[in-house]
Amino acid sequence: MQLALALGRRGQGRTWPNPAVGAVVVRDGVIVGRGWTQPGGRPHAEPEALRRAGAAARGATLYVTLEPCSHFGKSPPCADAIVAAGIARVVSAIADPNPEVGGQGHARLRAAGIAVEVGLCGEEAARDHAGHFLRVREQRPFVILKLAVSADDRIAAAGHRPVAITGEAARMRVHLLRAQSDAILIGIGTALADDPLLTCRLPGMAARSPVRVVLDRALRIPGASRLVHSARQTPLWLMASETAEAAAAARLGAAGARVFHLPADDDRPGLDPAAVLHALSGQGITRLMVEGGARVASSFLSAALVDEVWLLRGPQAIGADGIAALDARPLSVITRSPRWRERATEALDQDTLTIYERA
Fold first, then answer.
1. Which of 46, 67, 291, 308 is catalytic?
2. For the chain, N or C: smaller number of CB within 10 Å?
3. Is 329 helix (H, G, I), strand (E, B) or coil?
4. Cα 144 to Cα 343: distance, rounded to the nearest angstrom
5. How many CA atoms lie within 13 A of 233 on its CB side?
């Protein structure tokens, strides 16, 4: 099952709107087939593993990280493929809360005489599939907030001037996280200050770049920005107010960007994070990386819409006039709060990465 989980993670960031599932076929103690959900969500992991196992699948055990589907979507039910392959036993990590499945996959297998066991590595599988579960249950993606802070909890110099906070090893880790995310989100302030590209720049992994999302209520993003210039190569989604100028939306749409118009309250700045997540979920996004800036990070935290925090800390201080990581809120709302617990920490050269999850 640990191998199946590792295989499933290969698909993270590439399989949405489907979950990134892993599957392993074992016969007489020998692995005879392995598979994971392919880019775009098809083929699913189970038929991939069965295809590779071939005739050796008959009488074998299938380990799979999520309940096999039982309904016709854009591909036939995986449960039917498992029955047809002659699998004798299925070990499933966790049931699928999708109402189109919801135990029916396991039931179909049992009705065909296949032994079914559920729960092995279930907690780990629940973490890996959290985006799928949240999209089904709450119509929002799993949200990872990435913060790169200086030794004195700053994210930029005075005037929002960008400064190098972390080193190469940390930056490579961030680009890997981008590749494992369906989408990456920033606010218009960060877009204007940094003119970022937000792609995955690991060697050979440009195609793994996530959808770029910018919260841009009034559609202020310049047509000359690197995000707009690359919109035809890597998707760019702009989240704007319903009252944003139609001419600006048309101009950006002609450049390749996709504009979403969301309800906005004239009495409050920005867009409602919950409405943004609902819109992204509706497009199939299951894993969202929130990268900045301070107001965006604070707004998602205040709305209790962050599921995991990646805190990268560099060794140098910026100074009291620098930009605080969470706008007017102290970083201790994460690091010293009973609402968050530290799941892992590691050194990345001179930097430190600490991952927090909801307690």
1. 46
2. C
3. strand
4. 14
5. 13
The DSSP code for 306 is -
Residue for token pair 């979920």: 281
Question: What gap in Å lies between CA 157 and CA 83, rounded to an integer?
Answer: 61
Q: What is the pLDDT of residue 340?
A: 98
Long-range CB contacts for residues 169-172, cutoff 8 Å, separation at least 24: 169/348, 169/349, 169/351, 170/312, 170/314, 170/348, 170/349, 170/351, 170/353, 172/202
Residue 265's pLDDT is 78
Cβ burial, residue 34 (10 Å; 0-12/13-18/19+): buried
Q: Around 118, how many Cα atoms within 13 Å sit in the side-chain half-sphere? A: 14
Total Cβ atoms within 10 A of residue 161? 12
The neighbouring-strand residues paired with 213 are 185, 237
Residues in Cβ contact with 48 at an 8 Å cutoff, skipping those fewer than 6 apart:
23, 35, 36, 37, 38
- Angstrom distances, CA of residue 251 to CA of 194, 223, 244, 255, 258: 22, 8, 12, 7, 11
pLDDT digits (tens, 9 = 90+) for 289-323: 999 889 999 999 999 999 999 999 999 999 999 99
Give tens-digit pLDDT for 34-50: 999 999 999 999 999 99
Please, what is the average pLDDT of the chain?
Answer: 95
**Residues of the chain with confidence (pLDDT) below 70:** 74
Which stretches does DSSP call E strand in the chain? 22-27, 30-36, 61-64, 89-92, 115-118, 142-149, 154-156, 183-187, 211-215, 236-241, 258-262, 287-292, 308-313, 323-324, 340-348, 351-358
